[in-house]
Design a protein that fits this description.
By secondary structure, the protein is an alpha/beta fold. The protein has helices at residues 50-55, 59-69, 87-91, 98-116, 133-144, 161-168, 199-212, 228-242; strands at residues 10-17, 25-32, 44-47, 76-80, 126-131, 151-155, 177-183, 189-191, 195-197, 216-222. Helix 6 (161-168) links the parallel strand 6 and strand 7. The longest helix has 19 residues, at 98-116.
Amino acid sequence: MTDSRYLKRTIVKETVPSRHLPAGERQLRIFLPPGYNEVLSYPVVYCQDGEDFFNFGRIATTATRLILDEGLEPFIIVGVEVDKKVRTEEYAADGSLHAGYLQFFAEELIPYVEEKYAVRRTPEERILAGDSLGATVSLHLALSYPSLFTQVMSLSGAFFAESQNIVANQLDLRWLNIYMIVGLQEDAYETTDRGVFNFVELNRHTRALLEHKQATVFYEEKDGKHQWGFWQKELDQAIGYFIKPE
């Protein structure tokens, strides 16, 4: 049974106006840690597929438990919602809306959050998190805006050929710190619009490319499928890689 203390939390909904997105705006849900105080400042985790991270990943419950019971430094979570009908176009490197989404995130979302909430403004304490294509767009954000983002949490990243080519063309990634996990049962995963892929091989190859460019890479393969049942159980370790005890 879930400890009732973990369910007493503050989650705020926001709408960010945008000149770069066709819809003209994007919804957020923001988790504020226990004891949130605007006088202080907090590390922040930005999650692609924000609704899924909160509903299926139960990230707010995990965060509350880690802060209250494990002594992790309190942190803020920003879940960025997505319209599943255009998710691939926004998140995939070759998507028609990809460039606009990157600009929205870096040039509109980040200033909006940093003006309204007590988040830290250094690249080391802005963490980008995503599953599948959400991990892919998180990596592309860091590669496009290294002055803003140096920390990436990748849960079964969908690192297709175009993404691998982008990594291969980088000169020096020693500034990048990326946490990567993939499930061993993801070796023949059928995507909704691109066919069947071996995600284990995609992640192994991407890891090799990143390490060749001298990125710092934490990498693990575990029993698991390409679904939230796997990723939810890994979130505490993934968060703990970036957010340390006080």
